[in-house]
Amino acid sequence: MPPIMRLIWVSVALPDPESPLLSKALTGCSCELIAAPLDALAHLKSAGADAILASFPLPDWTPAEFLEEIQRVDPRTPVLIHDPEATAADAFRLGGMGAYYFFDGPLDPSDLAQRLEAAVEQARSRDLKHLGAALSGGAWKNLLVGESRAIENVVEVIRLVGARRCTVLITGETGTGKEMAARALHMAGPRAQRPLVTVSCSALPEHLLEAELFGHVKGAFTGAINNRIGRFEQADGGTLFLDEIGDMPLDLQVKLLRVLQEREFQRLGSSETIRVDIRVVAASNCDLPEKVKQGKFREDLYYRLNVVPITMPSLRERLSDVPLLVEHFIQKVCWQEGLPRKAIRKETLDRLCCLAWPGNVRQLENSVEMAIALSGDREVLYSSDFPSSPSVHAKPVRTANSLIIAIPDHGLDFEGTMRNIERNTLDQALRKAGGNKQRAADMLHMKRTTLSAKLRSLDSRTVCTR
To answer: Which residue has the higher pLDDT, 16 or 108?
Structure first.
């Protein structure tokens, strides 16, 4: 049985549900009828689609403008334009911009059905070719940057289970890359050409989350003015990623358990049973076994989710990956901003490798983005471009009597590292002392003149090295 075609139809004058266009032309389609173009773009971004049909006129939008916005969100989705008022020149221009087909008269149900089927088939064939090339080259591995043993262990698990349907539970601190691991899992198997649908279980109240997951029929509750397919249905044939699963309400956990066991459910307000073929990946940054003990998370659901566990390591557990991550983020941000590729000083990299990064990879990425913004037209990033406040960067990891420094695989500049530690220590004392050098010197058990001399020496070295 072929997968259901997921269509977004954008039109101010939406057709009657009983019209031939819906009852005949779109048989076998899951059709989202949306009147507002911005709502359609948001739906495409969150849930994806196999095709988009845009019927004009649409207020404040030309066909060319809307086509460009769709391509920014997802350039792979075929777009069919319906505009009875357009000219042949308009149709030619839109075709050159990437529109799959242009209807210049009343929509005929048979013609519409054939055009949609052909558009989706062409897109799926193209995606299958890209998938084969990607899998043969291991493109999914590019989502997990690093060469440390900790991240290699994650890559190995994904390689082994990527092609399976088994449920995976990804745990780890906030910012460690749990969503990237979920995307890699999706891309590492044959479901890669089908949708990856993401739901944040902490973003919606219980009654809305249930409708979001399972969908609803018209009149199921106040405000349900149309039928709506849920995330499980949208992910049919692909992967459903349940983020922050630990925040799911207990009542909803019971329903989720049944779906995981039977792969079937009912929309809210409907008695029709819907079967789906999906792969479920869940993620949590909280201690789920502890939540089970507290009675806040069902034990049977925990074991049903935890078929294959993946633990994303914190960045402080893989500090040797910091240089690779920094280079990756520099390339990414410069490309996004249309900037020439920037370099980074080795002593700056060494300094970044000495920090604990409580916000993990996400914090490092944000710091790189900030550094690029503050560097202006300079081609090289310096330590001064990165945040130095203790509230932004953690203090280096300490034991009771010593400072632990992770040595990257490529080695580090010992003198530069010691200089950075000394500078950070002096700066921290000055901040705590409100800039008063005498109080800062007292904190460090040294004379004020010694503190001033060290600051002058460090400042002169920084100038010389630049």
So the answer is: 108
Is-contact 395 432, C-beta < 8 A? Answer: no
Place of tokens 């074991």: 303
Q: Collapsing DSSP states into helix, strand and coil, what is residue 245?
A: helix
Binned at pLDDT 50, 70 and 90, residue 1 comes out as very low
DSSP letters, 326-369, are: HHHHHHHHHHHHT-PPPEE-HHHHHHHTTS--TTHHHHHHHHHH
Q: Which domains does the chain have, with CATH numbers?
A: 5-134 (3.40.50.2300), 144-313 (3.40.50.300)
DSSP, collapsed to helix, strand or coil, labels residue 300 as helix
Tell me the C-alpha distance between 382 and 70, whole Å.
39
Cα 421 versus chain centre, distance = 34
The residue among 302 and 453 whose pLDDT is bigger is: 302
**53: which strand partners?**
9, 80
Instruction: Give dist(CA 209, CA 140) in Å, integer.
Output: 30
Asked whether residue 211 carries a pLDDT value surpassing 70, the answer given is yes
**CA of residue 96 relative to chain centroid, distance:** 31
Q: Is 22 within 8 Å of 31 (Cβ atoms)? A: yes
Spatial contact of 110 and 25, defined as CB atoms under 8 Å apart = yes
Per-residue pLDDT tens digits for 241-263: 999 999 999 989 999 999 998 88
Residue ranges in 98-176 assigned as alpha helix (H): 109-137, 149-161
pLDDT value for 279 = 92
Tokens representing residue 128 in the block: 């299958």
Which residues have CB under 8 Å from 377's CB, separation 6+?
A: none
Residue 368 corresponds to which tokens in the numbers above?
């790189």
Contact yes or no for 102/83 (Cβ under 8 A): yes
Tokens (6 digits) for 226: 């149309």
Cβ-based burial of 195 (10 A; exposed 0-12, middle 13-18, buried ≥19):
buried
**Percent of the chain that is helix, strand, coil (3-state, to 5):** 50, 15, 35
Single-letter amino acid, residue 354: C
Q: At what angle do helices 322-337 and 360-374 cross, to 10 degrees?
A: 50
Q: Give the relative orientation of helices 37-47 and 63-73 as an angle to the nearest 10 degrees.
A: 20
Name the token pair of 297: 């998370």
